[in-house]
Amino acid sequence: MPVWAQSAEQPAGENAESTEIVVTATRRVERLIDVPQSITAVTSDDLARLNATQLRDYADTIPAMTVSSNGGAGRNQITLRGVTSGADVASTVGVYVDDVPYGGSTVFSINAGVALDAGLFDLERIEVLRGPQGTLYGSSSMGGLLKYVTRGPNLSEFESSVQAGLSITEKGDPSYNVAAAVSAPLVTDKIAVRAGGYYSRDGGFIDDVGRGEKNVGRANIYGGRLDVLLQPTDRLSIRLSGFAQDIHREGNAQVDYTPDGQLITGDLEQQRILREPFDQRFRVVSGTLNYDFGPATLTSITSYQTNDVRFRIDASALYVPLLGAFGLPVASTAVDGGVSTDKFTQEVRLSSSQSGTIEWIVGGFYTDEKSLAPSSLVGYNADGSLFPVDLLTANLPSTYKEVAAFGNVTVHLSEKFDVTGGLRYAYNRQTYTQNATGILAPSVPTLRSHEGVTTYLANARYRFSPHATAYVRFATGYRPGGPNIVTFDPITGAPLGPPTFRSDSLTSYEAGIRGETADRTFSIDAAGYHIDWDDMLISGIRNGLNSYINTGGAKIDGAELTLTARPVRSVNITGAFAYQDARLAADSPDLGGQKGDRLPTVPKFTAAINADYLGSGEGLSPTIGATLRFVSDRNAGFDANPNLPQYDLGDYVTIDLRAGATVGPAKVQFFVRNLFDVRGDVSAYMATAALGGPARVTVVQPRTFGVSLSGKF
Asked: How many CB atoms are located within 10 Å of the residue 488 CB?
């Protein structure tokens, strides 16, 4: 289970005091208990116990984390602490692979809806940082940060690991996964290499009765990593890494409901005219250099990545009646979308040693991004041939360049009390070109924008003892503004909307405490916060097409509490709870919301309770455990939005069970997810429902039985 408290759950037979979780949230290696902000560390053992292979398998065990899915792996939007307007136009949560930021930085790179759903094999841990991370991690981390920390090569020992799993979902096809990794020193203590790969087949469980196809959400996810670590001296290390992942999904795993929550065809069914494939191809290479000067350490991270996404949405329910009203008798329509992003980043930072009265980090960051977003609305006749009128065909190239400088200073006023201040200044330039044909949108010459933004951090930390820390934190974050999509009034020819939009900004106030007993049999992690969100960046509909605008803002109050008990060495019980009161701070006609309305998809209450017995001793070591998840009711949007009808996402409770055994280096585990086969609503896609089409609802995976095998050698 996720380690919200301070110590790692020890392997069978080890003393509970022997292992501690360390994280890199502040760009330094620190004990989790010492980090002056709210953070969850999910270890590789936690992921293995949850049998997690995708984001959906662990996300709802993390306090104040919500994942909205638009049909399956790869089409996910991550929200932390309720910082969302619903269907976000740009990400509010940063995603990193080690120290490399994932995805594009602008609205044109559709980064909000394609959050990295990385394969979870051979990871060291996942760090989830709640609250704005603008000073150290830059833009689009205003709600928080999700960081995949990969396992590096071992310079001194040979390591290998394997994993395989098989599961059967009720009313669906079987799913399976395999993975393997190996690490070997090529020159002991000097050069080592680590390589690994994984493949996962998701069998799907949604039937398309319109096209007569079963399990349309089935998907293939495969990828691999290659790392080379060179340490020619004790002071110098160089790590070269490559990571590749492909996702191919044959349809969107969504169930059709009426806006009032009634099934349209049947349980776990949808009705489409056209296929809805999804493909993503992600590649990243990076080089990280560390040199220890003694008083300070120099770190340089260079990376280059490509991210290609293509998807199709059957939009017939919306556009067939809409175009028919204008005398265009199409039989079906598809929205073909996607993005190709090439991104180069360079970060250099200098960090003082972690000793003395003053500690500091200073650095600079540069990114150069190019995106091309093809988008089209394609019409078809009843016989499947193309409709003769070009509705919309667009290629939308954009560029984004940013330079930033940042710094943090920590002053230790005593052995127990310290204060930190930090700031980051970022300046970006953007271009956007609207190359379009068809009757729905014009071509527009290249538009340009530039913007400078400063973010701030201040915190104070008091260590009562090595086992208890309290802190207060003030932090800000933002998402970049930019040039706008341009549409025109069809009668007057006047532009509908401004040529640029501003960055939105967020200010967070937080206080928290972490503590554990000296023998680590009990621990507590609690935090409370208030957030002010200004100039919220949203999508407004102009002439039937999206345009980006700034609207009022929001206020969010919340609290998180995690309790962990280890009454005996072999028993671990964790309860993680979150409260989020996220609401509009002013009326927003474009959202269809009034002051005080709840923000979409944000549950007021969530809970995840995990209990595990971990056998110890020689020979066979049995394990048994359970997870209970609770998510309270949410809305999919706002009541008065004419383009996105409201949908009530009710509350749900699920229970998972697991049991297994460890024999030497090998582990076997049997599990059942969603024991009582609950139809919990995860999220709802309402864009095609405005003219009577269905609410497309993503539901919790039905009851699933499985077995996993793993070993480390």
From this structure: 16
45 in helix, strand or coil? helix
Residue with tokens 């009530």: 648
CA distance 696 to 614: 41
Q: Which of 203, 199, 198 is nearest to 175 (CA)?
A: 203
pLDDT (average), residues 64-91 = 92
CA 365 to chain centre: 22
Q: What is the CA radius of gyration of the chain?
A: 25
Q: What backbone phi and psi angles, to 5 degrees, belong to 530?
A: -135, 135
CA distance 160 to 419: 43
Q: What are phi and psi of 138, to 5 degrees?
A: 80, -155
Instruction: Measure CA of the first residue to CA of the last residue in the chain; give whole Å.
Output: 23
67 and 117 Cβ atoms separated by less than 8 Å: no
Q: Which amino acid is at 69?
A: S
89-133 pLDDT, tens digit per residue, is 999 999 999 999 999 999 998 888 899 999 999 999 999 999 999
Residues 126 and 148: beta-carbon distance below 8 Å:
yes
Ramachandran quadrant class, 327 (left: phi over 0; alpha: psi -120 to 50; beta: rest)? left
pLDDT at residue 3 is higher than 50 = no
Whether the full predicted model's pTM is greater than 0.85, yes or no, is yes
User: What are the φ/ψ torsions at residue 9 (nearest 5 degrees)?
Assistant: -75, 125
CA atoms of 3 and 21, how far apart (whole Å): 8
- CB 626, CB 610: distance < 8 Å: yes
CA 31-564-655 angle, to 5 degrees, is 125
One-character DSSP codes across 435-478: EEESSS---EEEEEEEEEEEEEEEEEEEEEETTEEEEEEEEEEE
- Which tokens hold the place of 379? 């019409």
If one counts every other C-beta atom within 10 angstroms of the C-beta of residue 399, the result is 17
- Of the candidates 289, 281, 404, the residue with the CA atom closest to the CA atom of residue 339: 281
The predicted pLDDT at position 413 comes to: 96
* Nearest Cα residue to 307 out of 150, 106, 128: 106
Q: At 326, which amino acid appears?
A: F
Phi, psi dihedral angles at 137 (to 5 degrees): -120, -5
CA atoms of 513 and 381, how far apart (whole Å): 63
SS3 160: strand
Say yes or no to pLDDT of 11 above 60. Answer: no
Query: For 588-635, how does the pLDDT look when each residue is reduced to its tens digit (9 = 90+)?
Result: 988 999 999 999 999 999 999 999 998 876 778 899 999 999 999 999
Mean pLDDT along residues 462-486? 93
DSSP class of residue 86? Answer: S
